[in-house]
Every structure is written in structure tokens, then in C-alpha cells.
Amino acid sequence: MSRYILLILLLLLNGCGYYSIRNIDKPPPQLHEIWKKQGAAFLEIRKSLLECGQVSLGGASSEIYEKIGIIERKDQINYGFLVDRCMMNAGFVQQNISWTLKDACADTRYLDYPACQPEAAIPKLSIERRLNSWYCKTRRDYDYCLKHALAPQLCSPEKTKTPPRECLTDKEEQLRGAKSNQSTQQTKFAQPTNTYTMGDRNNEQAMQWQRDIQNQNNRRMNEMLKNLQ
Prior knowledge:
The protein is mainly alpha-helical. It has a domain at about 35-125. It is built from 11 helices and 2 strands, in the order H-H-E-H-H-H-E-H-H-H-H-H-H. The chain has helices at about 5-15, 30-35, 40-50, 60-65, 75-90, 100-105, 125-130, 135-140, 140-150, 155-160, 170-229, and strands at about 35, 95. It has a two-stranded antiparallel sheet with strand order 1-2. The model is unreliable at about 5-25 and about 195-200 (pLDDT under 50).
């Protein structure tokens, strides 16, 4: 049996995911591409996912769930359903997928899951949850990264000093934006200053040439007048 057939069988048996068999030849969409909301940019979507409890923006693998203490497969699936319901309650809708949360909760395998029940306790957007997510802590805390990252060899103090924007507080993001604007302004004004200086030099040279030509013409005119006298 070929690997391709095995992969199809695994997908059929699993049945839980955002990607269907007919999309097997296409790369799966990224998480911020699955959700949309009127006026919401990618950064807001990424922040909202983390604030709803998404453990990683690159997808939540079993290894990551185990890192945060969720071992059972059923609990991992239910956790993902809760994140989806949180996003929906925040005004986001799912797109670019063929198997939505509604489809999942209608499936006999998952309809009894706690997250599919009307009375389920759905998390709400939380900045604290975002900043303390596995995703952000591995990017903000070097020691945490060494202990909990899937690839500790990629951790470095330098990286944790400049975490991605979705892992910043509002104040930190404002400070970074201010520094970026300041750097842009410095770059913007540095070049025109040099250009202006060169322009001044060129203008001075042009004016000097004009004066030299005028002086020469005056001398010639004076000589012609002398000759006529």
C-alpha cells in the first residue's frame, strides 16, 4: 500500500481537522487565514487567537499540548473547539476551510464533547492568557524556551529581547512603534540633509561660474569701449 493511500486512510480515520481530502494537494491555510472579521488585520487575528487560548500560531501539535500539560487526545480536541467558540463569540467567522466547528460538533464522534454543549464555559479574550501562552513564553522567556520549546537549540537571549508583536503588551508595542518611527524619521531626514548640502555646493558653483562669465563679458565690453574711443 502506497504512502498516499495510507495518508488518505489516516485522514479518514482522524476526521478532526481543518483540512479535507479534496485539499490534500494544497498547503493548509495558516491560522490567521482561517478566521476573518470586518476591519481586523492579521495582527489582531493572531492576538485574538492567543487570547482565546490557542497554544501556538503555527498549529497545536500533540507535543505542544503535552508541554502545557494536556495529554489526552480527547482533551486536546475539546481544547481546540473551545478556542474556536471563543473566536466566534468575539465576532470572528471561519473561512477557507471545508470542515468547521459546526461540522465537528454535528459529527457523532464529537457531539458529546463539552465544548459542543450549549452550556459550555467558553473562554473570553484575555491579554494575560495571550502573554502567558506557550507561544509567547517561548519567545519572551529564554529560560522557559530552553525548558519547553520543541527545539531548544533555537532559543537565544537575543530572540527573546525582540518577541513578535502579538506577544507584546500595549505599552511595549507603543514603545516599539515609537522607536520605529524615530528611526524612520532619522533615516528620512538624514538623506535630504546630504542632498541639500550637495545642492548648496552645486548652486554655489553655478553662481560662481555665472559671476566669472559676467566678469569676463564685462572685461570684454570694457576693452571694446576703449578701442572705440
